[in-house]
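Sample entry (65 residues):
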Amino acid sequence: MWKIVVGFVVFAAISLFVIMKAGDQVDMSGEKHGADAVHVPEPAPAAPAVEAPAAEAPAAPAEAK
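Predicted structure, serialized as tokens:
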């Protein structure tokens, strides 16, 4: 029985420590959906500009003899 009490006290102490360290950044309201959910997606990284090599003019066909 005493192990349950000690486990509860340790868990409560760790929980309070984490909450106190996080300050007002902890959102305890649960899962959000719809208009309440604020999610700003990160912009995709810009692809580096790669220039295509200039197309060379085809060589003149060799005349068959």
